[in-house]
Amino acid sequence: MMQLSRHPTTYPTRYQQIAAQLEDELRAHYRCGDYLPSEQQLADRYQVNRHTLRRAVDQLVERGWLQRRHGIGILVLMRPYDYPLHAKTRFSQNLFEQGSHPTSERLLAVLRPCNGHIASALSREEGETVIHLRTLRRVNGVPLSVIDHYLPDLDWWPALQQFHSGSLHEFIEQRIHQSLTRSQTRISARRAQAKESQLLEIATHAPLLCVRTLNTCVGSNSVAEYSVSLARADMIELTMEH
């Protein structure tokens, strides 16, 4: 009578092989915000039908490497952007140097009384009026972070009302003739709330990096800006330089 092995040898299926090869390609050649070729192009490359290719992609979606975007394509999520933190960090310049296309748009610009937390950060009395800007940053068209900027100098308000897109710090340097430098950074983590999930196009309760920064004008010790950035944790890696 034939004896069956208690330890059968298993081999990866074709779609598992493709998933492994695709993962290697993602590590070597893609960044967050890139898109894969179409499923048909990938199926032709690997000489399989679209059903087999789709199963391979599904594996990488489950592992968090990829995201299907209906009507657009297959978005790469992994290989986060390297974002060094030091006094002269420039978000846009840093990502340009990594071969990406960062953009920033203003979502909000108002004057408002500051609460206790913001007042403390800006060394102001609670209830004092400050400038509040909110911006949304994208990389290669994919939302990366939403940032609340609080600025105490009301003399800047007429100029800042003209800010609509691009680098806020470059705008301040060009229009207000002040250069800002980072003096303190605090980093924590939390889950995305509904409004943040909508802006960043992520699931509710997805992990976010919360980066709170104090910036001063060059040559001054007084705080010129307090910002709170909520960034997608799957798209950015912070590097502390010493």
From TrEMBL:
Protein name, UniProt field: Phosphonate metabolism transcriptional regulator PhnF
Keywords in alphabetical order: DNA-binding, Transcription, Transcription regulation
DNA-binding recorded as keyword: yes
Pfam families for this protein: GntR (PF00392), UTRA (PF07702)
CDD domains: WHTH_GntR
SMART domains on file: HTH_GNTR, UTRA
Organism: Serratia odorifera DSM 4582
Species classification: Bacteria, Pseudomonadati, Pseudomonadota, Gammaproteobacteria, Enterobacterales
Cross-referenced NCBIfam families: C_P_lyase_phnF (TIGR02325), PRK10079.1 (NF007486)
